[in-house]
Amino acid sequence: xHSKPLLLAATVLSATVxxxxxxxxxxxRGGTPARQAVVAELTARLQAAYGNAAGNQNLYIGxxxxxxxxxxxxxxxxxxxxxxxxxxxxxxxxxxxxGVTADYDRNGVDDFIQGLDFNQISxxxxxxxxNAPKLAVKNGQYTITIGQVEMxxxxxxxxxxxxxxxxxxxxxxxxxxxGYSDExxxxxxxxxxxxxxxxxxxxxxxxxxxxxxxxxxxxxxxxIATAAKFSFSKNCVGCHTTGIRxxxxxxxxxWSFRPYSAVLYQADDPAYFDYDxxxxxxxxxxxxxxxHGPGGRHVMGGGDPAKIVNPAKLGQTQANEICGRxxxxxxxxxxxxxxxxxxxxxxxxxxxxxxxxxDYFLNANVLWPDNETSYEHNQKYSEFxxxxxxxxxxxxxxxxTCHDPHAPANHGQxxxxxxxxxxxxTTTDADDTLCLAxxxxxxxxxxxxxxxIAGAADNRAAIGTVVEAHAHHPYGPERAMxxxxxxxCHMAPVAAAEHESxxxxxxxxxxxxxxxLKYQAQGGMPNxxxxxxxxxxxxxxxxxxxxxITVWNQPFDVATATVLMQYYGPTxxxxxxxxx
Length: 580
Hints:
There is one protein chain. The chain has 580 residues and is α+β, with helices and mostly antiparallel strands. Among the domains are: 3-82 and 243-307, no CATH class; 85-230, no CATH class; 510-576, no CATH class. The chain has helices spanning 3-11, 13-25, 33-50, 63-69, 111-114, 221-227, 232-235, 237-240, 288-292, 296-300, 316-324, 380-386, 388-391, 399-402, 433-439, 450-454, 460-471, 486-490, 513-518, 528-534, 555-564, and strands at 85-86, 134-138, 141-146, 149-158, 164-169, 185-192, 197-200, 246-249, 255-258, 330-332, 342-343, 348-349, 361-363, 417-420, 423-426, 495-497, 500-503, 568-569, 575-576. Strands 1, 2, 3, 4, 5, 6 and 7 form a seven-stranded antiparallel sheet that branches. The radius of gyration is 25 Å and the shape is globular.
C-alpha cells in the first residue's frame, strides 16, 4: 500500500504544482463551487494515493493540502516552524530560511561552498585537530568530513536568521545497499548566527577522550549504531517532523524513523526531502497537522470541521498542550526512550485534543537551585503553567494570545495586533504595547486606557510616566538596552542552551538578586536585573562587567547582587521582595 502514494508523488508532480497554484489563487469559502472543486481534486489525489486508507483519522497528508483551501494562512510557509528542516541546495545558499547560511568570515559565500577546513584555521575546534571537521560541496552535495569519513549532509536545521544552524548526516556503511547508514545523525558542527561563529555540538558523541573520531571507514551499520550516539530519530523527530508513521530500531541496531510521504509538493522546495532513504520526499518540519491533528479524515470528509482540530475552539488547557507538546523538556513514557511526548511502550504519539498531554511525558525540566527558575532552555510550557497568566481572573491566556503560529512577522512570531475589549491594538514587544494592551486599566497601569495604548504614538508621554513609575527606569523600550521594556525584567534570559543565553522565561517572574546570594553554596544563580542588563551591558556600579550566564558565584556576581538588593530586596527602595 505504501508504494502507491510514493509513485504518485513523483509522477503527478508537475500537474500538482500547476493545479495547486490555480487552487491557491481561488479564494475559497464555505460550499462555493470553487471550494467544492478544490476539495474534489484533493480528495481524488488522496484516494488515488492511499485508497481506502485515505479516510483514516491518523493519516497525515501535508500542509499543501491545507493551504489549497485555507489560503489566508499562506504566510505559514515563511515561519520558522515551516523552515525547521531543509535539504541543503546550492541554489538557496545564503538564503535565510531556505539554504545554508553559515558564513564565518562574512564574505557572502556559505562555508561549505567555500570549503572551510577547521584544521586550517584557529577556532573552537582546535582541540580536535588534525581531525576537526571539514566542510565541502561536491557535485551539488553538501558534505562534512571527520577524520577519514566523508558524510553527506541530508538536512539543515535552523539557519532562519537567528540563533543556530545544525546539520544531519548519513555515515558511510560497508554493509548497506545504499552505502550509508539507515539513520541520520546530528553532526557536531554548529554555526551560531550570533556571534557569527562555530562551536562544537556534543563533540563527545563523535570523538573519544583521546580526541580521535569514533567513526571510521569501513564500519558496518551495527558498528555505526554503537559508535555514533546522537540519533536524530531517537532524539528529535517528534518535534521537528509532521507525524510518525513508524519508529523503532533496525535489525542492525540503528534507530529508524519513517515519516509520512508527501503527495503534494514542489520539486524545488527544500522543505521536502527523503528522510528514510526510500527515494521519495517526506513530510518534515512543523506543519499544519502538528497543531490541528492528522488531516486525512477532514479532506476525505469534504472539509468537515468536525474531523479536524481547531485550536481556537479548545479550552485553555487543551490549547496550551498543543504548543507544550514541543516547547518543553520532557521524556517519553514509560521508558524515557524519546525526547518528546510519546508512549514508547505502545508506539503511540499524542494527538491534539485527544488525551491529556501529561499522560505522554515524564518531566525532564532542569532548574536552578531555587527549583523554580529554568536552567535549561525550551521549558516554556511548564514555565507558563507556573505563571499568573494561566490563572489570572481577567483572561485565561493561551500561548496564541501573544504568539501567532501562522505569521513570520518577527523572531518570536509575536502578534502585531490584539483585540482587547472590542478595540484593535497594534502591538510589539519593543514599545511595551504587547503587554500594555491587556494590562492597561489594571494594577500599576490602572490609569492607562486601552484606547491610549491603541494610540501609543500620540500618548507616549502619558504611557512613559506610568511605566517609569512602575519600572523606576527611564521609558525607552525601543532602544538597544530596552529601558523599561516589560520583557527585560519579566522575561529575563535566565536559561541557556550550550552556554548561550537564548531563552526568555515564561514564568514572568522577576528573579530577585537575593537568590544569587542565597544559593552561593550551590553555585549561585542568575537574577533578572543582572542577566538582562547589569552584568553584561551597564557598569553602573563601577564593578566591571561579566557576560557569563552559567557561572554566578564569582566575586563580581556577589558584589553586583548585593548592590541590586538595595533596590529589589527585603528592604528594597524600589521594590520590596522577601524570599520565602
